[in-house]
Amino acid sequence: MPILDPDINQYLTDLLPERDPVLYEMERLAEKREFPIVGPVVGSLCYQMAKATKAKRIFELGSGFGYSAYWMTLALPENGKIICTERSDENIKLAKNFFQQGKLLGKVEFHKGDALELIQQFEGQFDIILNDVDKQYYPRALELVVPRIRTGGLLITDNLLWHGRVVAPDNDPATQGILQYTKNVYASKELLTTIVPLRDGVGISLKL
Ligand SMILES: C[S@@+](CC[C@H](N)C(=O)[O-])C[C@H]1O[C@@H](n2cnc3c(N)ncnc32)[C@H](O)[C@@H]1O
How far is the CA of 160 from the centre of ligand 1 (A)? Predict the structure, then answer.
Protein backbone atom coordinates (compact mmCIF):
# COMPACT_ATOMS: atom_id res chain seq x y z
CA MET A 1 0.00 0.00 0.00
CA PRO A 2 1.63 3.31 -1.01
CA ILE A 3 1.27 5.70 1.95
CA LEU A 4 1.33 8.77 -0.21
CA ASP A 5 -0.33 9.00 -3.61
CA PRO A 6 2.59 8.77 -6.11
CA ASP A 7 1.43 11.95 -7.88
CA ILE A 8 1.44 13.84 -4.56
CA ASN A 9 4.89 12.46 -3.78
CA GLN A 10 6.12 13.67 -7.17
CA TYR A 11 4.50 17.06 -6.57
CA LEU A 12 6.27 17.36 -3.19
CA THR A 13 9.56 16.25 -4.73
CA ASP A 14 9.27 18.78 -7.56
CA LEU A 15 8.71 21.57 -5.03
CA LEU A 16 12.15 21.03 -3.51
CA PRO A 17 14.89 23.45 -4.49
CA GLU A 18 17.78 22.13 -6.57
CA ARG A 19 19.81 19.69 -4.49
CA ASP A 20 23.53 19.14 -3.94
CA PRO A 21 24.67 17.17 -7.03
CA VAL A 22 25.96 14.34 -4.83
CA LEU A 23 22.42 13.74 -3.54
CA TYR A 24 21.19 13.20 -7.11
CA GLU A 25 23.97 10.69 -7.64
CA MET A 26 23.03 8.84 -4.47
CA GLU A 27 19.38 8.80 -5.55
CA ARG A 28 20.38 7.28 -8.90
CA LEU A 29 22.41 4.58 -7.14
CA ALA A 30 19.51 3.81 -4.78
CA GLU A 31 17.17 3.42 -7.73
CA LYS A 32 19.61 1.22 -9.63
CA ARG A 33 20.18 -1.05 -6.63
CA GLU A 34 16.64 -0.77 -5.25
CA PHE A 35 18.23 0.35 -1.99
CA PRO A 36 15.81 1.87 0.54
CA ILE A 37 16.96 5.44 1.18
CA VAL A 38 14.66 7.97 2.87
CA GLY A 39 14.33 9.86 -0.43
CA PRO A 40 14.43 13.59 -1.15
CA VAL A 41 11.21 14.67 0.61
CA VAL A 42 12.11 12.99 3.92
CA GLY A 43 15.78 13.88 3.42
CA SER A 44 14.79 17.52 3.19
CA LEU A 45 12.66 17.13 6.34
CA CYS A 46 15.72 15.73 8.17
CA TYR A 47 17.74 18.72 6.96
CA GLN A 48 14.99 21.05 8.23
CA MET A 49 14.93 19.28 11.63
CA ALA A 50 18.71 19.63 11.94
CA LYS A 51 18.46 23.34 11.15
CA ALA A 52 15.49 23.82 13.53
CA THR A 53 17.35 22.23 16.46
CA LYS A 54 20.64 23.93 15.52
CA ALA A 55 22.10 20.44 15.66
CA LYS A 56 25.84 20.11 16.22
CA ARG A 57 26.05 16.45 17.18
CA ILE A 58 24.02 13.77 15.40
CA PHE A 59 24.03 9.98 15.66
CA GLU A 60 22.60 7.71 12.98
CA LEU A 61 21.76 4.04 13.41
CA GLY A 62 21.76 2.29 10.03
CA SER A 63 23.38 4.70 7.59
CA GLY A 64 23.39 2.64 4.39
CA PHE A 65 25.56 4.53 1.90
CA GLY A 66 24.98 7.82 3.67
CA TYR A 67 22.00 9.47 1.96
CA SER A 68 20.01 10.59 5.05
CA ALA A 69 23.29 11.44 6.81
CA TYR A 70 24.41 13.54 3.85
CA TRP A 71 21.24 15.68 4.06
CA MET A 72 21.75 16.30 7.78
CA THR A 73 25.45 17.00 7.36
CA LEU A 74 24.57 19.83 4.98
CA ALA A 75 22.72 21.46 7.91
CA LEU A 76 25.62 21.18 10.38
CA PRO A 77 27.77 24.15 11.37
CA GLU A 78 31.55 24.12 10.76
CA ASN A 79 32.23 22.36 14.08
CA GLY A 80 29.31 19.94 13.73
CA LYS A 81 29.70 16.16 13.60
CA ILE A 82 27.56 13.23 12.52
CA ILE A 83 28.38 9.71 13.65
CA CYS A 84 27.22 7.12 11.15
CA THR A 85 26.89 3.42 11.91
CA GLU A 86 26.52 0.65 9.38
CA ARG A 87 27.27 -3.05 9.32
CA SER A 88 28.13 -3.31 5.62
CA ASP A 89 31.71 -2.54 4.57
CA GLU A 90 30.57 -1.91 1.04
CA ASN A 91 28.00 0.70 2.10
CA ILE A 92 30.59 2.47 4.26
CA LYS A 93 33.01 2.59 1.36
CA LEU A 94 30.36 4.08 -0.93
CA ALA A 95 29.35 6.59 1.76
CA LYS A 96 32.94 7.74 2.25
CA ASN A 97 33.28 8.33 -1.48
CA PHE A 98 30.09 10.39 -1.61
CA PHE A 99 31.11 12.49 1.41
CA GLN A 100 34.54 13.03 -0.10
CA GLN A 101 32.95 14.14 -3.38
CA GLY A 102 30.85 16.66 -1.42
CA LYS A 103 33.87 17.81 0.63
CA LEU A 104 32.01 16.83 3.80
CA LEU A 105 34.38 14.17 5.16
CA GLY A 106 35.49 16.52 7.97
CA LYS A 107 32.04 16.44 9.56
CA VAL A 108 31.41 12.70 9.53
CA GLU A 109 32.64 9.57 11.27
CA PHE A 110 31.76 6.11 9.98
CA HIS A 111 31.73 3.15 12.34
CA LYS A 112 31.26 -0.42 11.20
CA GLY A 113 29.27 -2.85 13.31
CA ASP A 114 25.97 -3.27 15.09
CA ALA A 115 24.53 0.21 15.58
CA LEU A 116 22.86 -0.81 18.84
CA GLU A 117 26.20 -1.85 20.29
CA LEU A 118 28.10 1.07 18.81
CA ILE A 119 25.89 3.75 20.35
CA GLN A 120 26.74 2.40 23.78
CA GLN A 121 30.42 3.11 23.10
CA PHE A 122 29.83 6.86 22.73
CA GLU A 123 29.55 9.30 25.61
CA GLY A 124 27.13 12.14 26.01
CA GLN A 125 23.96 13.26 24.33
CA PHE A 126 23.00 14.12 20.78
CA ASP A 127 20.84 16.83 19.25
CA ILE A 128 19.34 14.34 16.80
CA ILE A 129 19.35 10.57 16.61
CA LEU A 130 18.11 9.03 13.38
CA ASN A 131 17.05 5.40 13.63
CA ASP A 132 16.83 3.30 10.47
CA VAL A 133 18.12 -0.15 11.51
CA ASP A 134 16.40 -3.46 10.78
CA LYS A 135 12.89 -3.07 12.04
CA GLN A 136 12.86 -5.97 14.51
CA TYR A 137 15.47 -4.03 16.54
CA TYR A 138 13.36 -0.88 16.84
CA PRO A 139 12.03 -1.55 20.39
CA ARG A 140 15.56 -2.16 21.72
CA ALA A 141 16.88 0.84 19.78
CA LEU A 142 14.26 3.04 21.45
CA GLU A 143 15.36 1.97 24.95
CA LEU A 144 18.98 2.73 24.07
CA VAL A 145 18.48 6.08 22.38
CA VAL A 146 15.98 7.93 24.59
CA PRO A 147 18.52 8.76 27.33
CA ARG A 148 20.98 9.84 24.64
CA ILE A 149 18.90 12.68 23.17
CA ARG A 150 19.20 16.09 24.78
CA THR A 151 16.10 17.90 26.01
CA GLY A 152 14.66 19.67 22.98
CA GLY A 153 16.44 17.26 20.66
CA LEU A 154 14.78 14.89 18.21
CA LEU A 155 14.52 11.20 17.51
CA ILE A 156 13.76 10.60 13.83
CA THR A 157 12.64 7.07 12.92
CA ASP A 158 11.91 5.89 9.42
CA ASN A 159 9.33 3.38 8.11
CA LEU A 160 6.76 3.73 10.87
CA LEU A 161 3.86 3.09 8.46
CA TRP A 162 5.69 0.13 6.89
CA HIS A 163 3.95 0.18 3.51
CA GLY A 164 0.59 -0.03 5.28
CA ARG A 165 1.33 -3.24 7.15
CA VAL A 166 0.74 -1.44 10.45
CA VAL A 167 -2.99 -1.55 9.71
CA ALA A 168 -2.98 -5.08 8.27
CA PRO A 169 -0.43 -6.61 10.60
CA ASP A 170 1.37 -9.87 9.95
CA ASN A 171 3.62 -11.85 12.26
CA ASP A 172 6.79 -10.79 10.53
CA PRO A 173 9.36 -9.69 13.15
CA ALA A 174 9.86 -6.40 11.25
CA THR A 175 6.15 -5.52 11.34
CA GLN A 176 5.92 -6.57 14.98
CA GLY A 177 9.04 -4.52 15.81
CA ILE A 178 7.54 -1.41 14.26
CA LEU A 179 4.19 -1.90 16.03
CA GLN A 180 5.88 -2.40 19.41
CA TYR A 181 8.19 0.58 18.84
CA THR A 182 5.23 2.79 17.95
CA LYS A 183 3.26 1.72 21.01
CA ASN A 184 6.24 2.42 23.25
CA VAL A 185 7.22 5.72 21.66
CA TYR A 186 3.67 7.12 21.97
CA ALA A 187 3.46 5.87 25.59
CA SER A 188 6.77 7.49 26.55
CA LYS A 189 6.43 10.42 28.94
CA GLU A 190 9.84 11.64 27.79
CA LEU A 191 8.87 12.04 24.14
CA LEU A 192 6.23 13.83 22.11
CA THR A 193 5.76 12.02 18.81
CA THR A 194 4.09 12.56 15.45
CA ILE A 195 4.28 10.19 12.53
CA VAL A 196 4.50 12.28 9.38
CA PRO A 197 2.93 10.25 6.54
CA LEU A 198 5.58 11.07 3.95
CA ARG A 199 7.06 8.21 1.93
CA ASP A 200 6.90 5.23 4.36
CA GLY A 201 5.99 7.27 7.46
CA VAL A 202 8.64 9.06 9.47
CA GLY A 203 8.39 9.46 13.24
CA ILE A 204 9.52 12.74 14.74
CA SER A 205 9.82 12.55 18.54
CA LEU A 206 10.71 15.60 20.60
CA LYS A 207 12.64 14.87 23.81
CA LEU A 208 10.79 16.65 26.60
C1 LIG B 1 17.12 1.45 5.19
S2 LIG B 1 18.85 1.39 5.08
C3 LIG B 1 19.40 2.97 5.63
C4 LIG B 1 19.19 4.06 4.71
C5 LIG B 1 19.69 5.39 5.18
N6 LIG B 1 19.16 5.77 6.48
C7 LIG B 1 19.31 6.40 4.13
O8 LIG B 1 18.14 6.79 4.07
O9 LIG B 1 20.18 6.78 3.38
C10 LIG B 1 19.27 0.49 6.53
C11 LIG B 1 20.74 0.24 6.65
O12 LIG B 1 20.99 -0.12 8.00
C13 LIG B 1 21.92 -1.19 8.05
N14 LIG B 1 21.57 -1.89 9.31
C15 LIG B 1 20.43 -2.52 9.63
N16 LIG B 1 20.45 -2.96 10.90
C17 LIG B 1 21.68 -2.59 11.40
C18 LIG B 1 22.31 -2.72 12.64
N19 LIG B 1 21.70 -3.34 13.67
N20 LIG B 1 23.54 -2.21 12.80
C21 LIG B 1 24.17 -1.57 11.76
N22 LIG B 1 23.63 -1.41 10.56
C23 LIG B 1 22.38 -1.90 10.38
C24 LIG B 1 21.69 -1.99 6.79
O25 LIG B 1 22.88 -2.62 6.38
C26 LIG B 1 21.26 -0.89 5.80
O27 LIG B 1 22.35 -0.42 5.07
Answer: 15
